[in-house]
Amino acid sequence: MSTPKTTPNQNGVEEFLTSVSDQRKRADSRALVEIMRRVTGAEPIMWGASIVGFGKVHLKYASGREVDWFEVGFSPRKQAISLYLTCDLEQFENRLAELGPHTHGKGCLYVKRLADIDIGVLETLVAEAAAAARAESTQ
Q: Long-range contacts for 19-23 (Cβ within 8 Å, ≥24 apart)?
């Protein structure tokens, strides 16, 4: 079995955020740190080179694959901010409809900027996703 490339490390979150070249994405990332810290009660930790994660869970997939992962996290990517909600977002269809402009995959939510979305809805999504990740954890 291969070792995951995205693992927690000692790299500094603030140093990473400072390195984000786009000023708006840098400000949105700092706001996300505060939102996710408050909602999860966990401190931010770098996972790999570019993901800021909060909390830690041990997940076991139907395939038998197991992985240590974060409850929720984000990364300021070039095209959009990727929010990793570590659960199947289909269960949150009603909330997603209220969020504002976004796209999403199974467990990832993509937003261009926080000013375009409803922050209250985002906070609720983050809280519910973190709770779902904890419930699925085998730790």
A: 20/76, 22/76
Q: How far apart are CA 9 and CA 104, in angstroms?
A: 27
Q: Can you read off the two tokens belonging to residue 65?
A: 């694959």
CA distance 139 to 135: 10
Name the DSSP class of 89.
G
For the record, the structure tokens of 50 come out as 């570019």
68: phi then psi, degrees, rounded to nearest 5: -90, 135
Paired tokens of 108? 């990832």
**The whole model's pTM is what?**
0.91
Domains within the chain, CATH numbers bracketed: 13-136 (3.90.1150.200)
Q: Is the pLDDT of residue 31 over 70?
A: yes
pLDDT in tens, 54-103: 999 988 777 888 888 899 999 999 999 999 997 788 888 899 999 999 99
